[in-house]
Amino acid sequence: MESLEFVWEWLRSHPTIETFLKYLIWVVVVFTLTQYLKRLIRRNTGHTNIRYKSQKIVEVFGYLLLIIVTVTYFTGNIKDMALAIGLFTAGITITLQELILSIAGSVYIFLVKVYEPGDRIEINGIKGDVIDIDSVYTSMMEIGQWVSSDNYSGRIVKLSNAFVFRGPVYNYSRDFPFIWDEFDLPVRYGSDIEEAKKIVLEIASAQLSNYVKESVEKWKSVVGRYYIEDAVVEPTLAITLTDNWVRLNLRYIVDYKKRRHTKHLLNELILKAIDDTEGRVVLASATIEVIRVPVLEVDSKEGR
Fold first, then answer.
1. How open is the CA angle 256-260-264, to the nearest 5 degrees?
2. What residue ranges define each of the domains in the chain, with the CATH number in brackets?
3. Which long-range contacts (CB under 8 A, 24 or more apart) does 267-272 make?
4. For residue 172, what pLDDT band results from cuts at 50, 70 and 90?
5. Which of 217, 227, 128, 129 minimizes the C-alpha distance to 178?
6. Most-buried pick from 151, 170, 262, 298 (CB within 10 A)?
7. pTM (2 d.p.)
C-alpha cells in the first residue's frame, strides 16, 4: 500500500506525466474497443461489401475518438500542447505512412521525370505501358505474364507511387527509346558459312536501317548526358562452334514497341533466303549420331 501511495503522490507532483499516462490508457481503451467491434462485424456480417465498409466506418470513428481524446487531454500549457501536437503528428505519420510515401513518390516522379504516361517501364516485377499517374497510384497496361513476348495481357495494374523508393525502375523509352535484341541461327556443318553470314547481315541491315539511323542520334545525346561509352548500333554477327552446328548470333537494335514484329520479319526473310540457296546453306536441328551398333550373340543350344 505504501508503494502505491508513493507512486500516486509522485504522479500528482508531476501532472504532465500523470496526464500522459491517463491519455495512454484512453488510447488503449479506444484501440481495444475498435478492434473488438471490427471482429464482431467480421463474424456477424456475411455480405462482403457491407462488412468491408462497416469495418472502415468503425476504424474512422476510432481515429476521430482518438483525436478528441488527444485534444481534450492536452489543452493546458504550451509544453502540454506541444506534446499533444507531437503525439498527434506521430500517430498520423505511422497510420498514413504508405499514403504519405505515395504522395512523395508522385512528386519525385514529376520533378525527376522518372517516367511519364506513354513510357514502357518495369517496376516491382511488373512490366507495362504507363497510362496514368495520379497523386497516389501509377496505372499501367500490363505486358507479359501468360502472354508471350511484349504483348498486352489486358489487365490494368495500379501500383503505389511509393515503389519508386523501394527498388529499381526500368524505363524502356526514356532518353533512348531503343533496345538491343538478338536471336540464334543454327547452320549445319558443311554449309557455306560465308554465304549464310552474308544473307543474315544483308537482310538485317536492310530491314533495320531506319532504326540504326534514328538510334545514332539518340545515343549521342545519351553519351553526352551520362557517363557511358559509345556503342555499336549497327547489326553485328558472332559465330560459335557447337557440337551439333555452327551458331550464328545476330544482335541488333530495334524500337522497344516493335521488338516482336521485327524478330518475326527477320526470321521470315532469312528463312526464305536460305531456302533459295538450293542446299548451299542448310539449317541444323538436334540429331543423334549412332557410332556403332553392338552385336548381340544368341545361344540357341538346347538345354540352355
1. 135
2. 2-95 (no CATH), 114-171 (2.30.30.60), 178-275 (3.30.70.100)
3. 267/183, 269/203, 269/207, 270/185, 270/199, 270/200, 270/203
4. confident
5. 217
6. 262
7. 0.59
